[in-house]
Amino acid sequence: MFQKGLKGVVAVHTKISLVDGENGVLRYHGTNVKELVLDYSFEQVAYFLLNDKLPTEVELQQFNEKLKEGRYLPLHVQKVMDALPKTISIMDAMRTAISTFSTAEFLQMQIMEQAIVLTGALPVVISRHYRKQLGLPIIEANDNFSHTENYLWMLNGTIPTSTQVEALETYLKLTMEHGLNASTFAARVTVSTESDLPAAVTSAIGTMKGPLHGGAPSEVLNLLEEIKDESRIQLVIEEKIKNGEKVMGFGHRIYKTEDPRSILLREACLRLQGSDPWLDLATKAEKEIIGLLDKYKPGRKLYTNVEFYAAAIMRSIDMPAALFTPTFSVARIVGWSAHVIEQVDDQAIFRPQSLYVGKIK
């Protein structure tokens, strides 16, 4: 049976995550993501996703050491990045830099080690090109900082506040993995040919670059910027509904109820209430917008999706729109790597058929 875009077609069996759209549940290795997000750090959740178990203290220390190893880019990667024109996008710089990791020495490492090193390297690649675009000096990694703290440090050159770190880390943990999405599928297809992890991650980054996959939070940011103040929420939303415009940040192709990631991001924003005006605006706007959508579009069940609060968090830490998709990738590289490892262990090349609909002469 032909399904355009393979919609609804089961292509793999996976033990990594369960995305239950009907009941609004997301599980990593069978564990409700809420349990992981509330109780564990980025590093611990990443380890869990890659290994299907939480680390011991020794295992976490070893994981962190390997993650920090990735913060120091090989000299040839630095040279390639220095040669890139600053006019190319950050996503293109990421794709190019990650592809150059495929040296004989790197590929001799165990694939799990490769995954951890690339996870540690990606924030460095992003911050390096971002600051190059702005004409600013490179900020070296700080090994006293966690993964999330270090990313914000390298981007801005200032020590991030605890509010900024908590907000961003919650987002990163919630977006590490989400089933067989477009970029994850691209990674699995690439490695199914017996290619390597850097090639698979390069494919995934190229896929993530597309606005239909990785660009939604920037559209929500435009909405929040337009609202600006809680007194304007009803005016802005009713105008959009009247004009037939889509209200960004509401509705999801998979979830038929509330997106569990948006619930947890909302809870994070509520915990931080009063610490940032953009987080406060988001929580107030969400409640009013849902009421307006229910009033003007009854029965549609347009719940908040993860992009709504992602945009609020990005805005609260002064992260420009150009960094939204790269930051999404900082989280999702963990999921890509987990799927690549699973694909290697259960090897079968993807070879779907096409149906010819052209002329016959």
From TrEMBL:
What Pfam families does this protein's entry cite?
Answer: Citrate_synt
Q: Is the Transferase keyword given for this protein?
A: yes
Q: Which is an annotated GO molecular function term of this record?
A: citrate synthase activity
The entry's keywords: Transferase
The active site lies at 252, 307
Query: Record's InterPro entries?
Result: Citrate_synth-like_lrg_a-sub, Citrate_synth-like_sm_a-sub, Citrate_synthase, Citrate_synthase_AS, Citrate_synthase_bac-typ, Citrate_synthase_sf
Q: Catalytic activity, per the record?
A: oxaloacetate + acetyl-CoA + H2O = citrate + CoA + H(+)
Gene Ontology biological-process annotations: carbohydrate metabolic process; tricarboxylic acid cycle
Q: What is this protein called?
A: Citrate synthase
State which residue ranges cross the membrane: none
Gene Ontology cellular-component terms listed: cytosol
Pathway(s): Carbohydrate metabolism; tricarboxylic acid cycle
Family statement: Belongs to the citrate synthase family.
